[in-house]
Amino acid sequence: MTTITRDPPKLDVVPEGDPRDRGGPAQPLLIAQDLKKWFPVRGGLLNRAIGHVRAVDGVTFQVLKGETLGIVGESGCGKSTLARLLMQLIPHDSGVLTFDGDPIGEMRGISMKEFRKAVQMVFQDSYSSLNPRLPVEDSIAYGPKVHGMAAAAAKSLARELLEKVGLRSNLFGQRYPHELSGGQKQRVNIARALALSPRLLILDEAVSALDKSVEAQVLNLLRYLKRHFNLTYVFISHDLNVVQYISDRVLVMYLGQVVEIGSVDGIYTSPKHPYTRALLTSRLSMDPDERVEDPPITGDPPNPINPPSGCRFRTRCPFAEAVCASAMPTLPKWLDADSHVAACHMHDAAGGHSRSGNPPGVLDPLHALAPAGRGPAPVVPLRPAVVA
Amino acid sequence: MTDITFGAANPAKVDTAPPVKVRGYWQSVAYRLRYDYVTLVFGFIILAIVLAALLSPWIAPMDPQKTSMVYRLKPIGFKQFTLGTDELGRDILSRLLWGGRTSLLMGVVPVGLAVLIGGTLGVIAGFIGGKINMLIMRTMDIFYAFPSILLAVAISGAMGGGMANGMLALTLVFIPPLCRIAETATTQVRGLDFVEAARASGAGTASIIVHHILGNVLAPVFVYASGLVSVSILIASGLSFLGLGVEPPTPDWGLMLSTLRQAIYVNPWVCALPGAAIFITSLSFNMVSDGLRQAMDVKM
Amino acid sequence: MWLYVARRILYAVPIALGVTAFCFALVYLAPGNPLQLLLPPDASAEVIELIKKTYGFDKPIPVQYAIWLGRALTGDLGVSIATNRPVTGEVLGALSNTVILSVAAVILAFSLAFTLGLLAAWFNGRWVDRLVTGFSIVGVSVPNYWLGMVLIIVFAVNMNWLPATGMGSKGSESFRLTDWEQLRHAILPVVTMSMIPLGIIMRTTRSAVSEVLNHDFVQTLRAKGLGEFAVLRHAVRNALPAVLAVMGLQFGYLMGGSILIETIFTWPGTGFLLNKAILTRDIPVLQGTILVLALIFVATNLAVDLIQTAVDPRIKRA
Ligand SMILES: Nc1ncnc2c1ncn2[C@@H]1O[C@H](COP(=O)(O)OP(=O)(O)OP(=O)(O)O)[C@@H](O)[C@H]1O
Ligand code: SF4
Ligand SMILES: [Mg+2]
């Protein structure tokens, strides 16, 4: 059916026991511990820092070998910043990153150059992610050349990767980015990321800018490539459908923090955190038959420069109580791959919330459970989670 | 046929777009220029001026330095002097041909040097950002606080005349604007994802600048610099006119204008000739620069 | 906005300081002993000692700069080598003559360029537009000192309508607008000088006006039956702030860039003073004149920026 009728690929399928593997299958590929990144906000007469955007504020999670970890959250919640931190494109203010057991950027750890080979990224904006002055195959060949591959070898690798992502190299290799469609550019971006044979691919809104049909093609391509190259994905998107389709586990972010993490089925069928539930409800509400009367989440996300005390979601949470303002709920310690945990006092038996240990059931309509006297605040609804 | 190696159908469907003739950026610029006749005409005028200046030893009818008391300030078309003579009886036509050399040199060399120095500073400032950017760009701002001709006069006036000093002054005049153009372009490019991607693939600063920044900064810098050549020619001949540029008896258009000025009542139109040469040259460079700007359509 | 104003003023201070440092350094750019440059060649030993003391030539350079700056701030720019008179007086005397030229030239250029730019925008793309645009390229390509010479040749030498150079028999100390003799002398230099900002004012007008004309709301106005004249008036009102800003900047530029034209017309302004200083290697005058002109340039840029923010609150700056 497919039209690839050429010599067997030179890039062989990575064997079961990946020679690049160091820590064994049980060792998470990437561990992020308490990562923080605050951007200074400048202003005033002398342009001094007058505050900080807490873009990523104490994020802890693990990426298991071979899995696809989806990351979802509203616009501006720090997804891209987290991606850049994981890539070490920007330094983190505090926290520890461990790659396959080796700490990054420390003595005795993995060197930055090795790390850069092992972790690659596909950027959101296919327009600005390719150098307009370079033919695309040169863009792909650039990375291997940086790592010492001879120019001719890098070029043939680039052409081979173009074929792998579904672009005929003799047709597309010499083209400039402006001569490609969005989907084709994104394929080139994926090929470029693969050129260093990475183990972890971070995809930041990699399909968000594409048409639905092209998006499906690229998603399938990603699934194929993952198996073919023995990859692990961190897949960032605000599109809940796409994340559900591609992920094994899902991490939900709100205002620079992780609010819930669990298997894709767990998150999508029995979401725990009120924010996750609201996100999923707002997705359903896209369907006119299931649209609920009141918008499930109201208001804009709070200012990340001055986040609310205690639980950051409390300004929009229908279950908020006094304890939510005074104490910040923490994520229970991660247990194993199947753990499904949420940072909410209701899901902490000792949380001090009236519903602690007895969180609302999955099927309860959210607004019906809201404490009496708290009318629905008719503010701007959350932007639809699905891009039409 | 299905690719069985992978266990699953390969979803990487081969895209079957029709073959297009692929043309790189500079190729398409050249293509556009080919049909811009106005620019081409002025380009040929520049070529002619350059050739005339280069070949002046062979095509000049007379020795540009040979004075003659008898033939002083003769009008256009007097005997063998096609364009008349100057106050020392030297042949104007020959001096105009020779004078093109210094004028072109003063037009091109300072701009070239300033592109190198200002461009480098701008790329460094733009790429590194932060305190370095601050230091470089604020220093440039100081030189922006002078009208260009005043700055040139100040520097060469203090250092004393001469062609080398004039060139140095002009170079200093052009460094700030070129630095600013390069800095703006670099800052814009630096924030784009492909530079991040290059960094993510482990490339060092130097490699990124060479492979990813320069190619994108070159076009706007080049367009701007091409416009500066005409400015440089104008200011340089202005300096010579003030006695700060080329020193006599070297033939130079600005200098000729300055000495012939005394003879304005005797032989007015001969006096205007060197200025006409400056005007035509500067106009041609401006027109070509304008055409380049359009062909390169710099949107940075 | 007030924050912007305060920051903009604050930002001008280091630039002004940089300008003074540059002017101070001019003496060191010059070949030879700076002391010699500041003194007439026949200065006596006592005078040399005195100057050495007051300028602090025996002290390190930063201290010398501080001394020099302190004196400059109190209005003491040294003494001219050529005339032995204080530089400040010489510069201020010449300044008014340059101001007259520049103001007149900017006004003339504005009235001409604004009309032409308006025409070009109105006949967008047609031959009028192309003619005007071509004219503006010619304007920036022409060596203005040569243009001055050509005007002298035509109007003074050939037709004998206007005086060629100078400011007239009454001398150069003061210019009176009521003096027809002096006005006649000013005509050619003003016309020549107006050619410098002509091109840029024209282009600014053209782009600002055609931007307004291309707006959707103008099309709507037209559809509603608004007369062409009213449309034009609307476009002019919208384009004026940008054009006036350019005009202000060009005024500062002309003040500093008048040297060639004043030399051609022997117009006794700062440019002419500068030229004399160059010829006689009168470094104190050179230094002082350039300092004053550059500071005027900085001040006009600042003023234009501030006025623009005050007049047009749409311009929001970070
Ligand atoms: N370089 C920066 N300097 C200052 N603030 C920044 C910077 N980068 C991001 N931010 C801020 O950090 C917050 C998180 O931004 P980020 O781009 O990570 O969000 P995101 O979740 O990726 O959003 P989106 O879905 O819109 O891409 C935002 O408030 C943003 O304004
Ligand atoms: S901690 Fe309180 S405010 Fe936060 S999500 Fe849970 S119930 Fe809502
Ligand atoms: Mg993002």
Note down, in words, how this protein is organized.
The complex is a heterotrimer of chains A (388), B (300) and C (318). With 388 residues, chain A is α/β, with parallel strands linked by helices. Chain A has helices spanning 79-87, 112-118, 136-146, 151-164, 169-172, 182-194, 212-229, 240-246, 264-269, 274-284, 322-326, 366-369; strands at residues 30-43, 48-63, 68-72, 94-99, 102-103, 119-122, 200-204, 232-236, 249-254, 257-263, 341-342. In chain A, helix 3 crosses helix 4 (151-164). The two termini of chain A are 31 Å apart. Mean pLDDT of chain A is 80; it is low at 1-15, 290-295 and 365-388. Residues 1-15 of chain B have low confidence and may be disordered. The longest helix of chain B has 37 residues, at 92-128. Chain B has helices at 25-34, 37-54, 56-59, 92-128, 130-144, 148-159, 163-190, 193-200, 205-241, 253-260, 268-296. With 300 residues, chain B is an all-alpha fold. Chain C has 318 residues and is mainly alpha-helical. Chain C has one domain: Orthogonal Bundle (MetI-like fold), CATH 1.10.3720. Chain C contains 13 helices and no strands. Chain C has helices at residues 2-29, 34-37, 45-55, 61-73, 87-122, 127-141, 144-158, 180-214, 216-223, 228-256, 259-264, 270-280, 283-311. In chain C, helix 8 packs across helix 10 (228-256). Chain C is globular and about 85 Å long. Chains in contact: A-B, A-C, B-C. Chains A and B meet through helix 2, strand 6, helix 3, helix 6 and helix 7 of A and helix 8 and helix 9 of B. Bound molecules: adenosine-5'-triphosphate, iron/sulfur cluster and magnesium ion.
